Amino acid sequence: MIQTLRRLSVGLVVLIVVTVISGADTVSEVFSPPPAGQIHVVALGDSVTSGSNCNCSAFPQMYGDLLQERGSTVGVTNLGVGGLDSSGLLQTLNQPNSPTEVATAAANVVLLTIGANDFGDHHDDVTSGQCTGDCVSDEFEQLTVNLDKILTRIHALRDNKPTTILMTGYWNVFEDGDVAARQYPASGRVASDQLTLRTNGAINDAAAADDATYVDIYTPFKDSSNITSLLAADGDHPNAAGHALIASVLLSATPNPLPTSSHQGG
Q1: Where do the SGNH hydrolase-type esterase domain residues begin and end (predicted)?
Q2: What is the pTM of this model?
Q3: Which of 38, 158, 170, 266 is the most buried (most CB within 10 A)?
Q4: Residue 111's beta-bridge partner residues?
Q5: Is 196 part of any domain?
């Protein structure tokens, strides 16, 4: 998710990823291919994926635990990076022999949560209600292009082998709940919600054009009796209950058994 102080350039995001592995001599010291027969889950995305401000087990590990209850051995690699946008993710997927590239190539389940940070430069414009016209048109166009390229790259890394790709939307691309109510006018909260729905639509469309699955997070969060109870104190990230809800929704969207047919794409 996005806040003004967390806007990172693509170069800085990649630097963070490289810094994480700087103590390792090779990629294999960071990621080892899963044993034969094991389901390997890789989680790609932003600070929602990484579990920022939760002090809890983030949803990818919760999801892996739930998936294992189906009777399979499951390994999870969480590569979520706070501040990551779709351009940054695409760059790391294209970085030769990077942990992201290697782990994705070995993953038969890919969890993908990306897009909120693409609109960071307009956070204040949107949440203040001052975003007149379509102030995010360029960013939205770039997001739609990047989502298609990200999916294409995942399939290429997987050599078109059977892969379950679950693409989550967002309950809000910016802050929500009591925090948003205190900080932003009603017009800003409406604008943020509209941008969220538009972003979710782009993610849904990208999934539909591929053989990926769009996973609706917006509805279960908004349908909760109190969305604040699902959020960390910053109002921007899930707390433990929010992560548990995301994991549960993801499990419900996961085929059982996992698909065995190859991707029929380029």
Answers
A1: 43-245
A2: 0.88
A3: 170
A4: 43, 166
A5: yes
pLDDT value at position 32?
A: 58
Residue 35 confidence (pLDDT): 61
Q: Scanning the structure block, which residue is given the tokens 């058994």?
A: 257
Q: Which residues of 103-128 are buried (b: 16+ CB within 10 A; e: fewer)?
A: bbbbbbbbbbbbbbbbbbebbebbbe
Q: What is the CATH number of the domain that holds 83?
A: 3.40.50.1110
**What's the CA gap between 61 and 251, in Å, rounded?**
12
- Flag residues of the chain having pLDDT under 70: 1-37, 264-266
Structural domain count, the chain: 1
Distance, in Å, from the CA atom of 229 to the CA atom of 226, rounded to the nearest integer, reads: 6
pLDDT of residue 8: 36
For residue 221, tell me if it sits in a domain.
yes
Calculate the alpha carbon distances from 252 to 34, 55, 175, 214, 260 in Å.
24, 25, 26, 12, 18
Range of the domain at 152: 4-19+37-252
260 falls within a domain: no
Q: What is the pLDDT of residue 26?
A: 32
Residue 31 domain flag: no
**Residue 173: per-residue pLDDT:** 98
